[in-house]
Amino acid sequence: MNTGSSSAVPRRPRQIEAAWALTLAAVAAEVLVWVLGVFVVAPTGLDELTEHTGRSGAITQLAWSAGALTVLMAGWLAVAARMRAGRGWARAVLTVVGAVFLLFRVGDLGMDGIEPAWWAVFNALPDLLAAAAVVPMYLPEARAHFPSGARRTA
């Protein structure tokens, strides 16, 4: 008799679930940073665009920006879901993306000079979370989640 407490599907390692949670947090933080940068933190993106392109141009530009952000975040989540399902190629993609985000952030530190210090730190949060999501994917228990041709036994 099956009571529902057992399943045929093996449980994911907790490191994979941690990487998934960090990725979800990075995506949420990226969207939050975009919204705050556009509408809240002075000088807002909306104000700056309105000054240069007028109200209509600013709204059009922000709509394109929001659309691009949506596509990128959906792609990021789709790849992360494939990683969670055990696809090694997705782990590699997330590793490269996390490293690139971190390199861009390090290269960008102190470049603007016009934003408050708290905003610079908060703005770095999505990149730090994306980089942090890579670490648990390579811990020993998590490695077993990704099949490898080199591990085949005769």
Dominant shape: elongated
Secondary structure class reads mainly alpha
What would you report as the Rg, rounded to the nearest angstrom? 20 Å
Order of helices and strands: HHHHH
The average pLDDT is 86
Q: Residue ranges: pLDDT <50 for 5 or more in a row?
A: none
Largest sheet: none
Give the percentage of residues in beta strands: under 5%
Total count of strands: 0
What is the terminal-to-terminal distance? Answer: 36 Å
What does this protein look like?
The chain is mainly α. The chain is 73% helix and 0% strand. It contains five helices and no strands. The chain has helices at 14-39, 45-84, 88-108, 117-137, 140-143. Helix 1 runs antiparallel to helix 4 and helix 3 runs antiparallel to helix 4.
Question: What is the topological layout?
Answer:
Layout: H1 14-39, H2 45-84, H3 88-108, H4 117-137, H5 140-143
Helix pairs in contact: 1-2, 1-4, 2-3, 3-4
Short description:
The chain is mainly α and 154 residues long. The protein contains five helices and no strands.
List keywords for this structure.
mainly alpha, single chain, 5 helices, 154 residues
